[in-house]
Amino acid sequence: MTLPDLPAARRRLDSALDDLTVVFRGMTAHPDEYNCDCHWGSAEELARLKVADLELDLDLLHRTWQAPDWTDKAAVLRRILPQLASVLVTGRVAETYSDMETIGRAFAFGAWREWPAGQSAAVEEFLGAWWSHTLTDPDPVVPAHDVLVLVTEATGTVRPWLDAWEAHRFPAADAHLAAAATTGTTTCSATGFPGAPGRTRRSCAPT
C-alpha cells in the first residue's frame, strides 16, 4: 500500500461512522427492558436507554455494553452502537478500563449478523473500515492487536481479519504485527513474523 491509503482509509471509517448514525437513528432499548438497580444502575439511567439518540455519559455507556443480562441484547446494542463506535475509534474506551474482548463479546451477544440486512451491513462495514484504518495508520489510537481481539470476538472468526492484514502491503501493518507478537496478545508460530521467507501474518492469532 502507499501513503495516500491513510486518508482514504480515514474517509472510509468516517463514512462508516456516519452510516451507523443514520441506520440506528431512533433506536431504543425495549420498553420493558430491566436491569438490577442495585448492581447495574438507577431507574433514571435505564430510562435514558429508552429515549432515542440521547447521548449517554461514558460511565453509563460502559455499564450498558458490559452488562450481560439484558433481556433484549440486540435492542440495547442497537441503541448504543453509534456512540459506542465513536468512543472506540477515538480511544476513549480506555477511560472506562474495559478490555476489547468484553466489548467484542457485547457485539456477538447482540447477534448483529441476524439483524435486518441494512443494519448488519452497517456494522460489518464499520468493523472492516476500522480494521483497515488501524492497519494503515502508523500510530493508531487503539493498537492493532487490541482491535484484532475486538473484531474477532464480534464476528466469531479471525481468518478474514488476518487475511486483510496480509493484504495490507504497507510498512505500518508489519510494524503492528511485530508489536502484537511482543505484547503477548497474539500467538504466532515460528513462521509468524514478517521479513523472512515463508513468514506470513496468517500464522498469528489472538490469545
Please describe the structure with a list of short key phrases separated by commas or semicolons.
207 residues; mainly alpha; two-stranded antiparallel ribbon; 2 strands; 3% strand; globular
Please tell me how large the radius of gyration is.
18 Å
Q: Which percent band covers the strand fraction?
A: under 5%
Q: Oligomer, anyone?
A: single chain
Side-by-side strand order of the widest sheet: 1-2
User: How many strands appear in the DSSP assignment?
Assistant: 2
Spans with pLDDT under 50 lasting ≥5 residues? 187-203
Largest sheet: 2 strands, antiparallel
Residue-averaged pLDDT, rounded? 84
Taken in chain order, the helices and strands follow as HHHHHHHHHEE
Q: Label the overall shape.
A: globular
Specify the structural class: mainly alpha
SS summary, helix count: 9
3D structure, described in words:
With 207 residues, the chain is mostly helical. The protein is built from 9 helices and 2 strands. The chain has helices spanning 5-23, 43-49, 58-66, 73-89, 100-109, 117-136, 144-155, 159-167, 171-183, and strands spanning 186-188, 204-206. Strands 1-2 form a two-stranded antiparallel sheet. α1 packs antiparallel against α4 (73-89). The longest helix has 20 residues, at 117-136. The radius of gyration is 18 Å and the shape is globular. The chain starts with a helix and ends with a strand.
